[in-house]
Amino acid sequence: MADREERRFAEVSRESVRLMAEGAGVELGDDVAALLAEDVCYRLREATQSSSQFMRHAKRRKLTVEDFNRALRWSNVEAICGYGAQDALPFRSVKEGELFFVEDRDVNLVELALATNIPKGCAETMVRVNVSYLDGKGNLEPQGTVPTAVQSLSDDLLKYYQQITRAILGEDPHLMKVKSVSHDLEQLNRLMHMVKSLVQNPYLYLGSYVRSLVSSVMYCILEPLAASINPLNDHWTLRDYAALLLSHIFWTHGDLVSGLYHQILLSLQKVLSDPVRPLCSHYGAVVGLHALGWKAVERVLFPHLPAYWANLQAVLDDYSVSNAQVKADGHKVYGAILVAVERLLKMKALSLSQSAEGQSGAHPGSVVGAVSYRVNSPGLSPPPEPLSEAALGIASHLQVGGAGCHWEEWTPVPLPAMYCELYSFFGDSLAVRFSTGTGFGTHSPCTPSQLGDSRKEPPGPASNLDTTRKMPQLTANLNISPRQDGSPRTDPPPPTTRGAPRSAGLSREVFPKARFTSPQTTPPAFSFLIGGRQMGQRCQGRRPFQTMFATTPPVSAIPPRTYAHKLPVIGRVGKPVRRWTCSHYSLHLPL
Amino acid sequence: MAAVQGGMGDADIKTDIKTEPSADGFGNNNANDGRVLSASPGSSSSTGSNKQTAAVTPEDQQTLLAVLQFLKKNKLSESVEILRREAGLPENSLDPKANESAGAGSGGAAGIVDLEGGDASSLLSRVTGSSSAGAQAPTKAAVAEDQPDVSVVLSAYSQQGDPTLYKVYYRDLKKFIETVLDCHRAELSQVFYPLFVHMYLELVYNNHESEAKAFFEKFSGDQECYYEEDLRILSGLTKKEHMRGNETLLDFRTSKFVLRISRDSYQLLKRHLQERQNNQIWNIIQEHLYIDIFDGMPRSKSQIDAMSGSLAGEAKREANKTKVYYGLLKEPEIELPLDDEDEEAENEEGKPKKKKPKKDSVGSKSKKQDPNAPSQNRIPLPELKDSDKLDKIMYMKEATKRIRLGPDNLPSVCFYTFLNAYQGLTAVDLTDDSSLIAGGFADSTVRVWSVTPKKLRKVKSAADLNLIDKESDDVLERIMDEKTASESKIMYGHSGPVYGISFSPDRNYLLSSSEDGTVRLWSLLTFTCLVAYKGHNYPVWDTQFSPYGYYFVSGGHDRVARLWATDHYQPLRIFSGHLADITCTRFHPNSNYVATGSSDRTIRLWDVLSGNCVRIFTGHKGPIHSLAFSPNGKFLASGATDGRVLLWDIGHGLMVGELKGHTDTIYSLRFSRDGEILASGSMDNTVRLWDAMKAFDDLETDDFTAATGHIHLQDNSQELLLGTYTTKSTPVIHLHFTRRNLLLAAGAFNP
User: Fold this and answer.
1) Any idea what the CATH number is for the domain that residue A68 is in?
2) What are the Polar residues biased-composition ranges (chain A) (predicted)?
3) Please, what is the end-to-end C-alpha distance for chain B in angstroms?
4) φ and ψ at residue A555, rounded to 5 degrees
5) Measured between alpha carbons, how far is B165 from A219 in angstroms, rounded to an integer?
6) Residue B440: closest CA among chain A residues belongs to which residue?
């Protein structure tokens, strides 16, 4: 048996043969056993080779017991019975005896016969047709991004995948696609969180999947989800979060897919310019643009604004009862646009100011009123502080926010035209926004960015620009929801307010001043409370927000509450506020 | 030969005379004896292989006499008579020679002694078994001859030299070949593999087990990677007893390994061997190899690699010289009421005028007789029925709406997924008009689905049929039983997995071939089995209807393909010559030829009329599992387990293209209706589209390449690949282009 080692295939050893023979009551000599062993091996190999033929013709990759039995049968050898089951047979070993065997448990026939749950049998074989590829162009997405990927996974990864899908989707295996769960905000939220964790996992190379991720995220941002019909469903949060995620994906993985940025912009633009789409879709588009950075806003939203404004205006000006819901949505959109536009202005101003730093101090006459007001406002009081932070290079948007001092510069720079146009739309609310924006910028944005810091970004001074873009969305998004709440807030006296600024330039000066004090201080606080709620509610990963949420109140905790009492106008908040005084759900519900 | 159709005269014994270069002293009696004996069932059956030699060379006469002697000994006087008559031997020729052929006779006797042991052990050794049942020779004789065959073949190994010297011989030759000029080296290297195998087998046969193992260990690594599969089988073979009944071995022995070598290289080799007195190797070369010598430049390594890989080496050049009528038959002229729906809306009078020019334009194409087409009645074809004519008209109409495909205009793909196919889907076919789909399953069932809203209905029972008014216009509708309407029907009858399935062109019949050795014909009107064609006694891997109906071909594990007619229970032709299982069979569009792909990694083209093998294509490196003729009949595409598609020019008998891209066995191939696109479906869950036009256009088939058969393939698979379409987890086992060029694919979802 010395030559046995040279062989490259499995063998039945002499000892086994002798054991078998003993079992049958025959004593075998050494040479006989050796000959037999060799012959058995050869026959086994032969049978295996011919059985593989049956496998090939059955168009399978897996050799089954059935194939082997067929080969045996054609060789006039008795087939082996009892191993026809499809599932793999566990092969066990007993260490002490060096014994290997296939486990073969006793079957209790009585139990089986008397069993009450009779197996249903398998479903009927059927043929289903689907158009896989039209004109040779494949629509790869509908095939399901995840399942195709699953095929190529190794066992470990497969297990991991199953765990994850179960954790995310619950026990229902059909929820593979975002679309199938559009009725369930919880699911969507969970999916979005999953996407986020995917994106943040530094060990995953997403490669081509970025595209599909983006498309699902975009879906959450833009689609008029079934859940949006019910005003009680908080789909706005989902959209905000998705937008946030989108920007995140884009800035971290955008390089993996060429042309992604452009594609996203295009699709957002399409939605925005489509008047048939519901307002929530528009909202999503605006939020998405905002999340992608001020340049996106400038490129897409700004040129569309004039056209879009008319539609929105119509909605907002309709005070019929049936329109209430739509109008509320309209306000949301209005607020989102406002925030976006404001940031655009600020960023633009900033970019200009950075080039021409020295021009600060030149006050444009047109906004003097607002400016002067601003200076006095408490929110603005610590302008130097953010500046120092900016110097640390934590996030350049801080400079914007903190740039209580910078804010003046946007006017002298060449964007007056833009401002004028925007101003013609938003009137003083723009100015207000502006000031508040800076106001809360002083304290609020910095915290998220810090959070971002601690999370993962090493914000080197070099990556300053990047962080600007990445982090701002965090804050911006947080602000968005309160913003819309904020804008309607101007409603109570509003019909006149909003109508007026646009129609008559004169009224501007009157109203803004009148309303300045309160909005400007309060909204920031609100935004944070709500932000905290959103985060704290579901996602543990967002803890930092809550902690930060705790820090903010000192600055502005009191004003909001007081302000809340003034709110009834917008949303009959009175009761909810009392019920959840601390949680501040109130603002969302009435809308 | 009762089974032969009127038009096909009794095929005489094939006279495929080998023109061996006798100047080199080729041809050894001993080997020839073995060869002929091995093919003896065929030779007495008169339909058999192309390899049998009934020529009147003295050697052949001797072997014939040996056969006669044997038959006589076994008291098969009838066979003796017939064989003698057919071979044209004088009546008394047997007696004086009786003693001479005693050697062969005793060999036969020994074989019979072996019979009991051999039958059980040589499980797969049947060459034809009772395959000759349909032919003239009595079955008894065939079975009896089966055994001697083996021992005689093996006895060719009995001459032996010193076993320890084998290594030296081989190494010597290797050293020599490695030192020759580069241009010769590639050619001479071809000798390695067959030499290696034969030397190894000789060692094993002579019971030098340890030497054999050592020899194998030492040199098996040198062989080309595409022989790996065979080497693995070989490595398991270490005992003389095992050689008997080993399929691969028999394949190797019963045929000479064919090499194509340029004259210069051959002279070089010959001189070397003679100088060295290396008789061992020289003997093997003479006995077991067939060296096809050509004049001219030696071939390059890549050229050789492209063509080699089959079990028996390359095809001899002569084998591919026969003229093949690959053109299409003239379409029968049908009164074409080319009334499109929109035309119908127009006034009635305008019609006849419109009809004429259109008809001409359609007819003109077919009127021009293709010079390469066989004569219309070369083989008798069934007459067109009225329903066939209607179908042709439908076809023409559809064809006018056909999409022209091309690289810029790829077809849409529809996938028919078989769900819950736990039984194991093994074969799929679609009717030409894409209205029915049938699946063959591993649980022996055949299932038919209607893929149009039209349900499947059975004909009423006989009693009910009597009640029908037979004169009514809609009698065809009335005979159907509405109660039986359903989307699918299951047909039971086979007792093993159904491996091949094929619809008749008129959609009235369905053929299925199974592991149980039968081919069954099912009626799609009653959904019952009409005939079970028995003849293959081993699994039948594939079957296909002729494009004109009536005939069908089947091929299986017994290495022969059979041509049948639906109304004959015995085969009309038996195509034997493959050295291993026939895995797939396809009819040429003109129905005059049949292509078979085999596990011996060759493709053969057979003439239906004569039963001759007219083309042998080698080049695949694995068993061939799919074949497809181009619609114009000029080209053949083949796909194999090696994941490559090879394209063949039938007229010239040349390989003209290689399409690489699939990563697993290609189970289906199909040309688009106009032949612009070749679709291939594979086990790797993809459908790939290839630019067939470009592949065939770029050909440069000048006379030289045609004459020498040296192809030079450019590696342009990537340019020709137009698209890759993946399924989730469904191997693609069937492809079909609808009449409008929509691509349909089918497979079972494999969770």
Assistant:
1) 1.10.20.10
2) 474-484
3) 50
4) -70, -45
5) 77
6) A58
Q: Using an 8 Å Cβ cutoff, are B115 and B147 in contact?
A: yes
Most confident by average pLDDT, A104-113, A124-133, A292-301: A104-113
SS (H, E, C) B480-549: EEEEEEECEEEECCCCCCEEEEEECCCCCEEEEEECCCEEEEEECCCCEEEEEEECCCCCEEEEEECCCC
- Burial string for B63-73 (b: 16+ CB within 10 Å, else e) reads bbbbbbbbbbe
- Cα separation, B542 vs B511, whole angstroms: 10
**What's the rounded Cα separation, in Å, for the pair B651 and B353?**
41
Contact predicate B83/B136, CB 8 Å: no
pLDDT in tens, B441-459: 998 999 999 988 888 999 8
Amino acid at site B643: G
DSSP 8-state symbol, A257? S
> Which of A486, A492, A487 minimizes the C-alpha distance to A568?
A492
Domain count, chain A: 1
* A420 assigned to some structural domain: no
- Kindly report the nearest CA distance between residue A36 and chain B, in angstroms: 12
The answer to the question of residue A87 being in a domain is: yes
Top residue of B210, B235, B452, B728 to mutate, by most chain A CBs within 10 Å, is B728
Please state, rounded to an integer, the average pLDDT across all residues of chain A.
Answer: 59
% helix / strand / coil in chain B, to the nearest 5? 35, 25, 40
Tell me the pairing of strands B528-534 and B540-545: unpaired
A69 is a domain residue:
yes
Min distance B409 CA to chain A CA atoms (Å): 7
Q: Residue A20: give the domain boundaries.
A: 14-104
What's the pLDDT tens digit per position in B294-346?
888 888 888 888 888 888 888 887 788 888 898 888 877 776 655 544 444 44
The answer to whether B653 touches B320, Cβ cutoff 8 Å, is: yes
Strands, E assignment, B431-497 = 436-441, 446-450, 456-459, 480-486, 488-491
A546 domain residue, yes or no: no
CA distance B578 to chain A (A): 16
By residue count, chain B amounts to 751
DSSP-derived pairing of the beta strands B488-491 and B446-450: antiparallel
Residue B169, amino acid:
Y
**Which of the four pLDDT bands, split at 50, 70 and 90, describes residue B699?**
low
DSSP B409: B
pTM over 0.80: no
Considering only the beta carbons, identify the residue of A3, A50, A56 that sits closest to B213: A3
**How is residue A493 annotated by DSSP?**
S
**Which of B412, B513, B740 should one mutate to test binding to chain A, selecting the residue with the greatest count of A CBs within 10 A?**
B412
CA–CA separation, A35 and A41 (whole Å): 10
Question: Closest approach of chain A CAs to the CA of B202, in angstroms?
Answer: 18
Are the beta carbons of B166 and B204 closer than 8 angstroms?
Answer: no
Determine, for residues A136 and B411 on separate chains, whether the beta-carbon distance falls below 8 Å.
yes
Please tell me what DSSP assigns to residue B51: -
Whole-angstrom distance, CA of residue A408 vs CA of residue A360: 7
ipTM score of the complex? Answer: 0.75
CA distances A197 to A248, A541, B723, Å, are: 11, 10, 34
Task: Tell me chain A's radius of gyration from C-alpha atoms.
Answer: 34
Burial class of residue B398 in the structure, from the number of CB atoms within 10 Å of its CB (0-12 exposed, 13-18 middle, 19+ buried) = middle
**CB–CB of B581 and A136 under 8 A?**
no
Report the Cα–Cα distance between both ends of chain A, in Å, rounded: 86
Q: What is the pLDDT of residues B150-172, one digit of tens each?
A: 555 555 565 556 777 788 888 88
Tally Cβ neighbours within 10 Å of residue B509: 21
